[in-house]
Structures are given as structure tokens and as C-alpha cells.
Amino acid sequence: MDETGTSVAFRGGGFAPKSRRWVGVVVFVALVLFVEWGTRAGWISSLSLPRPSDVFETFRQLYDSGLLFKHLGPSLSRLTVGAILGASVGISVGILIGLFSYVRSGLVPLVAAIFPIPKIALLPLFVIWFGIGEGSKYALIAFGTFTPTVVATYGAVDNVDRTLIRMGQSFGLSWWSIVRKIVLPGAMPGILSGLRISLAIAIILLVAAEMLGAEYGIGAYILEAGSLYDLERLFAGVVILSLLGVLVSGVIGMAERRLLGWRT
Amino acid sequence: MLAPLISCKRSMMDIRLDGIGHSYDDFEVMRDISLDISSGQIVCIVGPSGCGKSTLLRFIGGLERPKLGRVLQLGEPPAGCLNPLTYIFQDFALLPWRSVSGNISLVLEDHGIKGAAADKIIEDVLARTKLSDFAKALPKQLSGGMKQRVAIARALAVKPAVMLMDEPLSALDSQTRELLMDDLVELWTRQPFTAVYVTHNLAEAVRLGHRVVVLSRRPGKIREVVDIDKPLAAREFGDADLEKTQKYLWQLMRDEARAADAELLHG
Amino acid sequence: MTLINRRKALALMGGTVAASGLAAPALAANKKIKVGALRFTSHSGNFVGFERGYFADAGLDVEFEFFQAAQPMAVAIASGDVDYAVTAVSGGLINLAEKGAIKVIGGALSEEAGIDGQKYLISDASYQAGIKTLKDLDGKKYAITQAGSSFHYMGSKMAAAEGIELSFTPLQKVGAIIGAMKSGQVDGWSIVPHIAKPLASAGAWHMIANVSDYIPDYQVTTVFTSAKNAADERGMTESFLNGFSKGVDDYAAAMIDGTADQDEMVDLIHKYVYTDRERAKAAPSIINGTMRINKGAALNIASIKDQLSWFQSEGLVDAGISIDQLVDTSYVDIIGA
Ligand SMILES: Nc1ncnc2c1ncn2[C@@H]1O[C@H](COP(=O)(O)OP(=O)(O)OP(=O)(O)O)[C@@H](O)[C@H]1O
Ligand SMILES: [Mg+2]
After folding, report:
1. Would you say residue B198 has pLDDT above 50?
2. Is the predicted pLDDT of residue B262 greater than 80, yes or no?
3. Element of type H or E holding B155
4. Which of A54, A58, A126, A127 to mutate to test the interface with C (most CBs of C within 10 A)?
5. Is ipTM > 0.90 here?
6. Whether residue B55 has its Cβ less than 6 Å from ligand 1
7. A258 contact B CB<8A
8. Min CA distance, C325 vs chain A (Å)?
9. Does the C-beta of B23 come closer than 6 Å to ligand 1?
10. Is the pLDDT of residue C41 over 90?
11. What is the pLDDT of residues C195-245, one digit of tens each?
């Protein structure tokens, strides 16, 4: 055999992105520094973007004055109540759709019809139905999280391995046991990834919800900053929403690790 | 390892298939199948692909109703028997979110067996399937052979009168299959159980079956019933007389299988 | 935002090009400008100026850019996408002026005694519950679109005069406020007469007082442009104000002073406002919506100063902003000084 043969050219590899935590941070910091430089040097006008250091300063003042929590408190309670309402009703309805032919035939077209309605368009209606107090805010967020949760949930129930259900039946498990012990856990991955989207929508809708007569709240704060064209406050508010989004996503990630450890 | 008594032992429950025929819409799947399955016997069903073996098993297990004929239970399942007709599935059908012992307790919970009583049964069936060390493991941590042993343990836990097995070994590699066949033989020898065992694999059929039922291609009819008298414990891998029976079965099946294959190809 | 039919605009221009060439020889003929507008009667000066060729006469080829709300219009001026527009003084407008982006150059809508103006309202539910006067609104919910809007200013001035406290409730959209008033979710509000009157007759609310009683000589809306146009495009800006003023004169003559044909003017305005309603239904709203638009786009500086200082006192805009940063007084008659 020829000992001097060329080695086979490597052509595998790639197409397998791994997460490199620090790269994200570097990109973010670089972007902020770039904008800071641009706004200081003047080639980004104060009309186009606020200076990051000013945004930070605004944020600090917000924190020092205690206003941050005055805005955050009501927003968090609206998010929590609205999202819990919307998600729990959504999951229940989604499961019913996944299990019963009549419920499915009756509700799937209805859900499809209300899904694309921009909930903001119903603002005046919500005021009349639920008042301008907390009720309409809960309702708007609940309504907005409800539809994506329903769709994700019944999709997840549909995807539960049928042989597992047959297995349950073949061992004479009761209907309720099959739902509780096989359908629900089996649908959990789909439900959780649906929740990821629903909860992001809940945060988006927070701003819309706080259009409805909210004096305090992150959404109200952002809306006011927008109408006053106060970019520093606008960005400070937006950053808070982003952080909320990261937080929610982290919580769901934790839930996934806890609840879905069985996945291969 | 001494197996504790289970109350279904020497079950007096036989199964009789009486003129079973079935069609999906205009599509006839099987015709006039009559068969007795007596207790303590393993009946293997072989036949070409699509001849209705799985469907027949679903009829026996009560998961589906045949259009013609009846499935009869002769005699009562012995006392203490939780689920007289119990399946073992080709793809194991373990709940991936439950541990090995959780998967077994699943089928006990609905019968109100919990706590210490359940633990005792679980311990027993795990010992009989040599899984005692894996009670806490999740299915994803187990090999295919172990998963099927868990499924067998789960089936044993409900003390079945008849076990219905649909190609239980076909998802496994051939070595694991051999080992599991040994395990099944051992289980049966220690405590004879009744089973209907569907397979494609004639080696399995001659190794495990007291009777082998050969079905014709669709619509499935009984082509021949071959009794194998040699005791299970005495059968071994590569036995000459078993090879002969296997060859005979293959001859019975070959033309049917070929025809069935061509049928499938032509849709 | 819809653009006006270009073919129509060109045809109109073609007819007047020769004349304008003679009438305004000092100006560049057919300079293209964009004018921002809302489909409100208060923007009639622009509509008449365009339809009657006054802008063309002044050498301007005007293209309208329609908006749904005043706020994006102000931002469009700041970004240079739109050249001129008419809007109320708001916190946003002042903040954009502070950033050196825009300037107020003239006045438009004014509250004038004797002409029906904006009304303070009390919702029917609250009225039935015993809130009969503006003073009774103490501690009650008063609807505004947003903090720093003209509604906020009007409510606040009234509250100061009555010596009461209002709970200002931002509802963003006029539609949402009307819903909230009808269902009694909020107690008080102020709005232009052509919205106030029909719903008052329908029993949704009660008109309690005129805004002009509390804010005399209120300069409700102003003409504004980018700071760059105000400083560097003097000729163009003067031409615009010229055409706009002529439009305003025609509007006032027909709708307020009665010296010209009102029907014809309603027809003209109906091309832009309430276009989705038939003329017979649109006409009363257009006529009810009539308010004084200042002659020659004169600007009531006293009112603007008052508004600026109110915004500052509320902390909605920086306390350091001077009236000169907001207003360029060199274009029109300054009144109330
Ligand atoms: N629910 C159903 N509806 C319609 N046709 C069906 C249904 N279930 C099975 N069949 C058809 O009935 C025939 C018998 O199916 P069955 O699964 O019982 O065959 P099988 O002998 O188990 O085949 P294999 O050896 O491939 O497992 C097949 O042709 C199949 O396509
Ligand atoms: Mg099969």
C-alpha cells in the first residue's frame, strides 16, 4: 500500500450551531457603544435615537424615584392575572377541542375567526364590556393569550402518541385517568412551547391594555413617552418590556427543564 | 430468585374465535376465522404483511369490533386478575415521562392499588423481568430490550389471563431478541401463561409457540394450524427439528407472502 | 394616509400655471411640497387653498399626505417627509421643537366668543347620578387621549378655574373616549361641537359649558413646519401661508360671515371630510364643525405662552424651553402679545 497517500478531505461539520453565551452579550454591548458614539459625535441625531447613557440615566431616575415599581407593580399584576386567565382557559378549551368531536367542530372555526382579530381594534368595545378599570386590561391580555394557547394546546393533544392512549385503554384505565396521566403530560411539550408565544403576546398586549385608562404601568409609561416624543423614556420603557420578555422566557425554560426532562 | 405466586396461574379462561370476518368499507381484511386458544398455551399467528394479524389481535383484546363472528371468553378469569386481556405492544408504549416503576404503577393506580401493595407487585414483576436495579430509570435511559422487558413487567403486574403480543420483539436487534425469547421461555416455564403472539419472524414462532397459526394473504383465512409438541424449555437456538418446522412454515407462507408483496406494490 | 389623485392635481395645475407665472414672478413655479392633513373641517384652509388653486397661484405644487392622528404628522414634519401641517399644541410638538426639529409659524383654529366652540361634557350616567356642574366633577374621571394632549390642557385649565381636582384618564382614541362616555365609565370630557351636539341630543352626555368660557382666545391649532423650512425656505413658507390664508378667507366668508355660498363650500369640504357619508348626512356635521380659523394665520402668542407654561408646570416638557424655540414669529401677525 502506498504510505504517502493523501488524507481524505474533510467535508463534514457545520450546520450544527451551538449556543455561545458571550457572543450575544458582545453583540449587544457593541451595538450600544456604537449608538453612544454616534449620538455623541452627532452623526446620529437626537431625533433618530436617544443616547444610551441618557436612557440609562432615565432608568436610574425611574428607579431612584421609586416610580419604577409604581409602574411595574400594576403591569405585573395585569400580566399575571390576564395571562393566567387566558392561558388556563385556553389550555382547558384546547384539551376539550383535542378530545371531543363536537367541541372541535364547534370551536375550531370560531377560534380561527377570532385569532386574527387585532385585539386593539376592539378597544372601545372592551371599555363598554369590562369598564376602564382593571377588568378590561385583564380581559384584553387574557383574550390575546387565549387564542394562541388554544391552537397550540389542541395541536399538542392531537400529537400525543395514539399508541400510548391505546395502551391506556388496553389496561382498562378510566377516561379521566387517560386524560390526566397520558394526554396531559404528552401534550405538555406543545403546550409549553405554545405558552412561550402566548406570554410574549401578553407582554405585547400590555401596552395596548394600558391604553385603557391606566395612570401607572409600563405600557402607560411608554405610551406617554411616545406621545411626548420623549425618546429616553420610550427606550427605558421598551428595555423594561424586553427584560420582562427575557424573564418570562427564562421561567418557561426552567419549567421545560423541570417538566420535560424525560424528552430525549 | 423464587417467583411469588400470582393468582392467575392455571387460569381457566380460554378464548374462542367464532367465524370472525371483517372489512373496512368494501375492503375485506379477513374471513371466517375460527380458533380456540386454550389456557396455558402460547399461540403464534404468522402470515404475510397486511393479512389482518394486528386487527385480529385488536378484536381479541376488545379494542375493535369485528363485523362478523364473535370473540368468546370461556370460563371466568381467575380471582385477583386485574386486566384479563393484556397487550404488549411492538413499540413498547411506555410513558416516557414516568420511571420504570411509575409505568408499572400506572396500570395499578386505576385498580386502587397504591402504596405498599403496589410496591410489592412492582418489586415482584421487576424481579421476574430482571429489572430490579432500574426501577427509578426513565425510558430514555433504557435500551430497546430493557424497554420491552418493562412492558412485559407492566403486563405481568395486572395478572392477565391472556397476553396479547403484537410483534413484541420486532423493534429489537437479533441478539436482544434471542435474549428476550429466553426470558419469555423462562417466565412461561416458571409460571405458564396464555398468550396470542403475532409475529413475522418464523424463528420466534417455532421457539415460543405451542401452536402456530398460518394465515393466508388478505383477506386473511386460516391456512393451517401447526402444533409443536416439544416443551418450550427444551427448545434451543438452531434445533434441527425446529428448523424443519420453520422451513415447513416458510413453504406455506412463501407464495402467500410473494403474492401479498406484489399486491402491495401494485397498490 | 392617502395621496390625492395625482391626475386631478396635475390637470388643476396645468390650468393655473400660466397665471401663477405672472402673479408671482419672484417665486419658483411649481415647487413641490407636501402638506399633512387630517380629515377634519379644521383643516379646511388647506383644502380650499388647494381646490381653488391658491397654492398653485403661489407657485406651489401641493400634495396632501393624510394622517389618522396628529402625533405621527408632527413626527413626519420633523423627519422632513411632510413640509407643512396644522395641529394642536401638544407635549410632543413642544418636545420636537426643543430638539430643533419643528417650528410653529402661524395660528389656525381659535375659540372665539359668538362662534360655537368646544364643549365641556358630563356623561349622562354621571349626570343622572347627580353630577350636574363642572364643579361636581371634583375627584371624578376626566377623559383625555394622552397625557400632554390638548384635552389634558383643557381639562386642567377648567379644573384650575373651578378649584377642583380631576382624575385624568388616558384612553388614546376619541372613539374609545366616546365609548367610555356613553357607558358612563368616565365622567367628563371636552370635544369639538360637531361631535358634542349630536350625541348630546341622543342623550349620551350633557353639554355643560363652552371651553371658551374657561380659556378665552384659546389658540387651539397652529400652522407648523420643520425648523429647516422656517429658517431656510422663507419664500416657500410665505407662499404656503399665502395660499393657506386665502383658503381660510374663503372658508370664513362662506361658513361664518355668510358673505359667500355655503353650499358650494360644503361641497368642497365634503371631498375631504366625511367622504364615507352621503352629502346630505355630511353637511350638518361639516356645518356644526365650523370654527374660526385665524385670518392671515395670525397667531395668538399669549395663548401659546399659556399652553407652554402649563406643559412645563405639569413636567410634561422641559422647564427650560423658551417660547422662541417653539415659535417663529416672523411670518404672521402676532396677536394677544
Ligand atoms: N382502521 C383501518 N381502516 C382501514 N383499513 C385498515 C385499518 N386497519 C387496518 N387496515 C387494513 O387492514 C389490513 C390488515 O391490517 P393489519 O394491520 O391487521 O395487518 P397485519 O397483518 O398486522 O400487517 P403487518 O404484518 O404489516 O403488521 C391492511 O391492509 C390494513 O391496511
Ligand atoms: Mg401488524
Report:
1. yes
2. no
3. helix B144-157
4. A127
5. no
6. yes
7. no
8. 16
9. no
10. no
11. 898 899 999 999 999 998 999 889 999 999 999 999 999 999 999 999 999
Fold designation for C6-111+218-335: D-Maltodextrin-Binding Protein; domain 2 (3.40.190)
Predicted pLDDT of residue A194: 94
B219-233 pLDDT tens trace = 889 999 999 999 999
Cβ neighbours of residue C286 under 8 Å, at least 6 residues apart? C41, C194, C266, C269, C270, C273, C274
Cα–Cα distance measured from residue C75 to residue B76, given in angstroms and rounded to the nearest whole number: 85
CATH number of B14-81+162-265: 3.40.50.300
Domains C6-111+218-335 and C119-214 share a fold: yes
Nearest ligand 1 atom to alpha carbon B58: 18
User: Does residue C73 contact residue C36 with C-beta atoms inside 8 Å?
Assistant: yes
Q: What pLDDT is recorded for position B26?
A: 87
Does residue A165 lie in a domain region? yes
Residue A70 has pLDDT above 80, yes or no: yes
Could you report the per-residue pLDDT of B22-68, keeping only the tens digit for each? Answer: 999 888 999 999 999 999 999 999 998 888 999 999 999 988 999 99
The reply to whether A58 falls in a domain is no
Asked if the structure places residue A230 within a domain, the reply is: no
Residues C329 and C337: their CA atoms lie apart, in Å, by 11
Digit-coded pLDDT (tens) for A24-34: 889 989 999 99
Element (H, E) at C121: strand C119-123
Evaluate whether residue A54 is within a structural domain.
no
Q: Are C60 and C54 in contact (CB under 8 A)?
A: no
Domain count, chain A: 1
Residue whose CA is closest, atom 23 of ligand 1? B50
Which residue of chain B has the CA closest to A261?
Answer: B97
What is the domain range of residue A158? 73-214
What pTM does this model have?
Answer: 0.77
CATH 3.40.50.300 residue window(s) in chain B: 14-81+162-265
**Would strands B27-37 and B222-227 be described as parallel, antiparallel, or unpaired?**
unpaired
Domain of A99, CATH number, reads 1.10.3720.10
> Domain limits of chain C?
6-111+218-335, 119-214
Inter-chain CB proximity C180 and A213 less than 8 Å = yes
Task: Tell the burial category of C236 from Cβ atoms under 10 Å away from its Cβ (0-12, 13-18, 19+).
Answer: buried
Least Cα separation, residue C210 to chain A (angstroms): 25
Q: What is the pLDDT of residue A124?
A: 66
Q: Is the CB of B26 under 6 A from ligand 1?
A: no
CB atoms within 10 A of CB B5: 10
**Domain boundaries C119-214, CATH class:** alpha beta
